[in-house]
Amino acid sequence: MRILVLYATVEGHTRKIVGHLTSTLEKAGHDVRLIDSTGDDTVPAADEFDAVIAAAPVHVGSFPAPLRRFVKANAETLMARPGAFISVSLSAASADKGEVQEIADCVEEFSKETGWWPISIHHAAGALKYTEYDFFRRWMLKRIAGKEGGPTDTSRDHEFTDWNALDAFVKEFVEQAPNLAGKI
Ligand SMILES: Cc1cc2nc3c(=O)[nH]c(=O)nc-3n(C[C@H](O)[C@H](O)[C@H](O)COP(=O)(O)O)c2cc1C
């Protein structure tokens, strides 16, 4: 299958997720076209791909503006094929149902704003990259993590992504997609 993978990243963790899923898909024999929505690449015509997977991180309650603009500008083409969205956040790892709901609301807001409604959504837990943040970010993220019972050791980074759950999500979407083509 020809799969379009779109993404945005701020701190690099979503790029790692996309790199992982791209190599998994390619090993399974799929043809992946990768687009960083912050670059100047364009979406191919709908007859040049069979399914789309987009991935983006939540930063201060919303997805990066360049990705939102890119998806909105290409929503009609993207909607012509089955789509999956991978939302990357710290709240995805939270035990607090309110936090998890807030992230689900962010995804709904994203679809309302862009006009792109994926058929499958996965909430992937992201990473705390304390060693790469500037002083203010490190202080802010440490405070948020502390409030939620997360790690506050800023001498190292912390990764929360469940790679097996991510693989299972992508596998299921790719298996379903051919049956959904033309039904959206
Ligand atoms: C400045 C900043 C703001 C963030 N805001 C949120 C947030 O509102 N909700 C959340 O769940 N995670 C938040 N996060 C956590 C990120 O979603 C997480 O670190 C993710 O792995 C970042 O992905 P990226 O490396 O692709 O940018 C924030 C992280 C940073 C550095």
TrEMBL record:
It comes from Oricola thermophila. This is Protoporphyrinogen oxidase. It comes from the Bacteria. SUPFAM superfamilies: Flavoproteins (SSF52218). Keywords: Flavoprotein, FMN. GO terms for molecular function: FMN binding; menaquinone-dependent protoporphyrinogen oxidase activity. Pfam families: Flavodoxin_5. GO terms for biological process: heme biosynthetic process. InterPro entries: Flavodoxin/NO_synth, Flavodoxin_dom, Flavoprotein-like_sf, Protoporphyrinogen_IX_DH. Residues 3-144 form the Flavodoxin-like domain.
